[in-house]
Amino acid sequence: MHSIYSRVNNVSATLSSCLMVLLAAIAISSLFMGANPEGTLDIAQLRVFTGQTRRWPHQRQEFGFVNFNVTADLTPLFHWNTKQLFLYLEAEYTNAKGVKNEVVIWDRIVRRKEDAVINVVGKNKYPFREISSKFKNSEPAHFSLKYNLMPYVGALTFGEAARTETALDFPEAKEAVS
Amino acid sequence: MSLPASVQQLLEGKIDFEGQKTVDTLTRFVLVILTAVSFVVGCVLQSLRVTFGIYGLGVALLLLVVIPPWPMYNAHPVQWLPALEEKKTSAGKLELRPLAPGRFSAIAAANVLHPTPTPPSPST
């Protein structure tokens, strides 16, 4: 501490240790902000059509088109350590080959508490297709609204806000919209 | 460094030992209290901005108080004892005695060639 340089050195060393403790405390405090928001998810319509993607131009595939209504109040999830919420709508089903699939068909990023009240009537943002090309003989699908809480400091946490009560069967694939 | 002595002294910012102890205690005390206070206030108000605002302000104030060599840190300068003289022995060997025992006797003692100090005699 005899010179300016050594004082700056000492203060910055203690400062960085204290800062680490502060950040750890903030991260641990978010474990205690338990919040379990509940919402509703209704699937208005699920249709299957055949089509092609640009990636495999010669392979005919079946695409699912989902129209849904989702409402949820996610404001309890916004505490001081919440940076943003990543919401995603997943379709979960087991296909004909017995493989369990979880497909994200819609997502949203929520950055502010004011935007955390979800009331969406929408359709799938992303292509909903089955890797084995056909939805035929798949087990009925459940849809769920899941969230990923991204903190400023600390571990990512995940949760589920809403789920369809009854599973939906995949209808027969149609060739064209008619 | 080849800066002029006055600039070098300014950049060095020396403070005495009492001052150093004060600065050390103050730094630790303030930083720990500041961490606790900023965490609690931010947690209650549920705002990270408040936490880091308080923390930043506190650190800025601390640096202002601790880094510059304020006169209060130089209020207890080291009391050096009067210098002892060199004495040539009859064999012509130069006898070096510790010049400034003070607080540094342990360090200065390492320079002693003859461990038992003899009282100085007036040089002729």
Automatic annotation (TrEMBL), chain A:
Q: Pfam families, per this entry?
A: SPC22
Q: Which InterPro entries match?
A: SPC3 (IPR007653)
* One Gene Ontology term, aspect cellular component: signal peptidase complex
* GO terms under biological process: protein targeting to ER; signal peptide processing
The superkingdom listed in its UniProt entry is: Eukaryota
Q: What is the protein's name according to its record?
A: Signal peptidase subunit 3
**UniProt family annotation:** Belongs to the SPCS3 family.
UniProt main location, coarse: endoplasmic reticulum
Listed A to Z, the keywords are:
Endoplasmic reticulum, Membrane, Signal-anchor, Transmembrane, Transmembrane helix
Q: How does it sit in the membrane?
A: Single-pass type II membrane protein
Entry's localization field = Endoplasmic reticulum membrane
Which species is listed as the source? Dentipellis fragilis
Q: What does this protein do?
A: Essential component of the signal peptidase complex (SPC) which catalyzes the cleavage of N-terminal signal sequences from nascent proteins as they are translocated into the lumen of the endoplasmic reticulum. Essential for the SPC catalytic activity, possibly by stabilizing and positioning the active center of the complex close to the lumenal surface. Essential for viability.
Automatic annotation (TrEMBL), chain B:
Q: Which organism is it from?
A: Dentipellis fragilis
Query: Which chain positions lie within coiled-coil regions?
Result: none
In terms of superkingdom, the source organism counts as Eukaryota
> From which lineage does this chain's organism come?
Eukaryota, Fungi, Dikarya, Basidiomycota, Agaricomycotina
Instruction: List where the protein spans the membrane.
Output: 26-45, 52-70
Q: Which UniProt keywords apply?
A: Endoplasmic reticulum, Membrane, Transmembrane, Transmembrane helix
Set out the biological process GO terms recorded for this chain's protein: protein targeting to ER; signal peptide processing
Report the protein name in the record: Signal peptidase complex subunit 1
**UniProt membrane topology term:** Multi-pass membrane protein
Q: Which family does it belong to?
A: Belongs to the SPCS1 family.
